[in-house]
Amino acid sequence: MLFKQKLGQTNVTSLVERVSRFTVILKNPNKRTKPVMGKIMEAIRDLPFTARKSITFDRGTEFVSWPHLQAEIGTQTWFCDPSSPWQKGAVENTNRRIRRWLPRKRDIRRCTDRDMKVICDHLNNTPRKCLGWKTPAEVFRKKMMEELR
Question: What span, in angstroms and rounded, lies between the C-alpha atoms of 39 and 14?
Fold first, then answer.
């Protein structure tokens, strides 16, 4: 997610688990690939493999070091076709939800990691119709517990 250019290069990466809609958002100081991919790896490294089996990226330059993701933690990577946001619809819908708290005009540089966590907690603990009125956190937890058996 990008913000007004006059506010600097700080941006947000949103990760959305496809089935449960469980969301993690990561604040990045810029769009350089190594720090962005490093944060993604740090965020998902400890998840069970089934929760990080694959990631679909858009065509942003911050994702060019995707081979490191595959090599270091075994996550398969895919890329959307150019100008095809519907291929990652859950992320686009989630970004629209996140904009309630992080509008384009907000100075994201002033947001802390704690602020990002509060937004994630709100998203992950809001019941969703598409999940049978369960929360993303409940569905994700249940899915992970089933994988551990």
Answer: 11
